[in-house]
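Running low. Invent one:
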Amino acid sequence: MPALFIFGGLGFIVVTELYAKRTWRAFSLHTKLMVVGTLALIVWSVLAFAALEWTNPRTLGTLEGIGDKLWASWFQGVTTRTARFNTVDIGGLHDSTAMMFMSLMVIGGGSTSTAGGIKVTTFIVLLLATVAFFKRRQQL
């Protein structure tokens, strides 16, 4: 299931290009941004969810082993931006985790994907523009 969420969130054009070209140098800028952005958001969301909810008795705290908690964190981290399924009680989330989930849902998936949101590439451009602004540069 998570693979379907990830591929659906990347978008049809990106998945087609990944399959057809298969080398990093041959990928378009859009595909490179989507792959790096998606990987970064997945790593961030999985680790942040695990850190924020590890001991919460209404979510991950009730799971027995470390493996179960990591699997639940993986699923929640991958699904939040695209499919929005859940394996833990969403009503039991800490406010900080709920805010993280909302921000991930605002970002969403790729521009040709099945996900909603402002899109990953738009989020990356906004981040880069913000960094350039604070460095007082017109280009990054």
